[in-house]
Amino acid sequence: MKLRELLANIPFYKSEGNVEHIEINGIETDSRKVRSGDLFICIPGFTVDGHDFAQEAVRKGAVAVIAEKPLSVEVPVVIVEDTSRVLPFLAVQFFQNPTKNLSLIGVTGTNGKTTITYVLEKIFRAYGQKTGVIGTIQVKVGEDIYPAVNTTPDALELQRLFHHMNREQVDTAIMEVSSHALDLGRVYGCDYDIAIFTNLSQDHLDYHKDMEDYLRAKSLLFSQLGNSYGEGKGKFAILNADDSSFLLLKKSTAQKVITYGCEKEAQFKADDIVLTAAGTEFTLQTPLGSTKIKSKLIGKFNVYNMLAAAAAAVSYGIPLDTVKKALAEMNGVNGRFEVVTTDEPYTVIVDYAHTPDSLENVLKTANEFAKGKTYVVVGCGGDRDRSKRPLMANIAVTHASHALFTSDNPRTEDPMAILNDMVEGLDASHSFEVIADRKEAIEKAIAYAKPDDIIIIAGKGHETYQIIGHKKHHFDDREVARQAIQAKGK
Ligand SMILES: CC(=O)N[C@H]1[C@@H](OP(=O)(O)OP(=O)(O)OC[C@H]2O[C@@H](n3ccc(=O)[nH]c3=O)[C@H](O)[C@@H]2O)O[C@H](CO)[C@@H](O)[C@@H]1O[C@H](C)C(=O)N[C@@H](C)C(=O)N[C@H](CCC(=O)O)C(=O)O
Ligand SMILES: Nc1ncnc2c1ncn2[C@@H]1O[C@H](COP(=O)(O)OP(=O)(O)OP(=O)(O)O)[C@@H](O)[C@H]1O
Ligand SMILES: N[C@H](CCC[C@H](N)C(=O)O)C(=O)O
Ligand SMILES: [Mg+2]
Q: Where does this protein chiefly localize (predicted)?
C-alpha cells in the first residue's frame, strides 16, 4: 500500500522527506518486530519512548517513520501531534477496515467478561458460525489458539487479528474490552454490533483516578456503538438492569438498549433460580417467550453471565432453543470455579477471583454448598490497585472459616509488603495466617481439609505462572493442588 493513501486520513501532518512514492509492506510499533518495508510508528509508552527506537527500526528495514517530533533517521519522517491517536486510523486503513466484515461483540465490566465471551462462543458455534475470541486467557480463531499478552490487544495487534479473522472467514468476533483498552484508545475504529456490560465494582484504581473515572472509561464502549440507525445489522447495548451503573450507561448509547437481570425489571430475566454444587437451573424470561435453562456453570454470578450472553444472542437473531441447548452443553471456563478434586471427600476449587466483589461472590457460592468448613488461599497482585488489598482480606476472613494469605504475582513489589497491606485491618479475632510461598499455602490448606470441607484457591485461575520482578516462573494452582491432594491420600 502507498504511504500517501494511508496518510489521506490524517489531518495536518508534516513530512520531512518525500513520502509521495513510498510503498508500505506492513506497520509496526515495536522495533524488535520490524521487517523490511515496514512503516514504524513511535509510541511514547509508560516504560520507554518508542521514538528512541526509530533508528533501530530503520536499521531493520523501516522505510518511513511516524513520530511526534523530527528525528535524525535516513528515511522520511511524518510528524503528527499524537502518534497513539493516529495508530488506530492507520491500522484500520491498512487492514481494510476488517470489523466491517465481521459481527463484532464487545464485553466490558469488572467481572465476568471472559466467562461471557466463552458462553457466547458456545452459542454462536451451536448456531453454525465460525467464531473468533479475544481475551484474557488466549486468542482463538476458529480452532486455532494464540497466546494473549493483554486482555485487549493494542490497536495495531487488534486490527491485524481482525484481518486474520477475515481471511479465515470468521463470522463473529467476540472480545473482552478492558477499561485500560477503552481509556487508551486500543479499540478506536472497531465497529461493534453488540456491546455488553457485566457489572461495576472496585478494581484497577492503580490506573483509574477513582470509580467515576473507571466507569467513564467503561462507558466509552457504549458511546462508540455506532450513531447511525437502520442499515443492515441491528446494534444493541446489552445492559445489566441490576447494576448501579445502568442509568449512566443507558445514556451513553444512541442504540437499542436490551436489559437483563434478576432483581429489577428486565427484558431477559431469570426466575425460579436453583443453585446447586453441580450447576444451575432457572426459567429464562425473554420478549420471545420463556424457557427452562439447565447449566453446569455454578453460582448466581454465572446466572448473570448466562443472561447477558442469552440477551446478546437472541437480540442477534439466534433462536431460543439453540441458546438453551448451548447453555446445557457448556462446560466450565478454564480456571473459573474449576473443581480440581475428583472423588476425594473434600472439594478443591481454583478460581480467578482477584477483585473484592468476585472474591465475595465465589466464597458466598462455596458457602451455599459447604457442609463443612470453607478455606480460602488468596493474595493480591503486585503493582496493582493497593486499595483492594485490605478489602479482599476482610472479605476472605468474613466469608471463609479460615484464610491463608499468600502471593499472587508480586511483580516488582516485596511480597511481604503486599501481605502487610492485606492484613493491616485484621486482628486476632480473625482466623487467618500469612504464608508468602504460594505452594506452601496451597499444601497447608489441603492438609487441613476434612470431609465436606471446601478449599477455594483464588486469584490466578488459568494462569500458569507467578510473576516475580519482571520474570514469569511456571506456577499452576491446579498442578500444585493435584500434587498436594495426591500426597494427602484418601
Ligand atoms: C500500562 C499498559 O497498558 N501498558 C501497555 C503498553 O506498554 P508500555 O506503555 O509500557 O510500552 P513501552 O514498553 O513503554 O513501549 C513503548 C513503545 O516502544 C516500543 N518499543 C519498546 C522497546 C523496544 O525495544 N522497541 C520498541 O519499539 C513498544 O513496542 C511501544 O510501542 O503497551 C504494551 C503494548 O501494547 C502493552 O502490552 C502494555 O500492557 C502491559 C503488559 C500491562 O500490564 N497492561 C495492563 C495494565 C493492561 O492493559 N491490562 C488490561 C486489563 C486487564 C484486566 O482485564 O484486568 C488489559 O487489557 O490487558
Ligand atoms: N458476573 C460476575 N459477577 C461477579 N463475579 C463474577 C462474575 N463472573 C465471574 N465472576 C468472578 O470473577 C472471576 C473472573 O471472571 P472472568 O474471568 O469471567 O472475569 P473478567 O471480567 O474477564 O476478569 P478480567 O478483568 O481479569 O479479565 C471468576 O473467577 C469469578 O470468581
Ligand atoms: N488482568 C488482571 C489480572 C489480575 C490477576 C491476578 N492474578 C494479579 O496478578 O493481580 C491484571 O493484570 O490486573
Ligand atoms: Mg477477562
A: cytoplasm
Tell me which of 176, 203, 352, 456 to substitute to probe ligand 2's pocket, judged by most ligand atoms within 8 Å of the beta carbon. Answer: 352
Q: Name the residue among 263, 277, 272 with its Cα closest to residue 292.
A: 272
Residue 375: name the closest of 346, 352, 355 by CA. 346
User: Which residue reads 472496585 in cell numbers?
Assistant: 202
Sorted by where each begins, the domain ranges of the chain are: 3-94, 98-329, 338-489
User: pLDDT at residue 490 above 70?
Assistant: no
Place of cell 441491528: 234
Q: Which residues surround ligand 4, an ion (CB under 5 A)?
A: 113-114, 136, 176
Q: Whose CA is nearest to atom 4 of ligand 3?
A: 354
CATH of domain 98-329: 3.40.1190.10
CATH superfamily of domain region 3-94? MurE/MurF, N-terminal domain (3.40.1390.10)
The whole-model pTM stands at 0.95
Q: Which fold has domain 338-489?
A: Protein-Tyrosine Phosphatase; Chain A (3.90.190)
pLDDT at 206: 84
- Please state, in angstroms and as integers, the Cα–Cα distance from residue 358 to each residue in 212, 223, 379, 439, 475, following that order: 20, 27, 13, 22, 22
Is 451 in contact with 345 (CB distance < 8 Å)? yes
Per residue in 340-370, pLDDT (tens digit) is 999 999 999 999 999 999 999 999 999 998 8
Ligand 4 centre from 359 Cα, in Å?
15
pLDDT at position 231: 56
**Ligand 2 atom nearest residue 351's Cα:** 29
As a whole number, the mean pLDDT across the chain is 95
Query: What atom of ligand 3 comes closest to residue 136's alpha carbon?
Result: 1
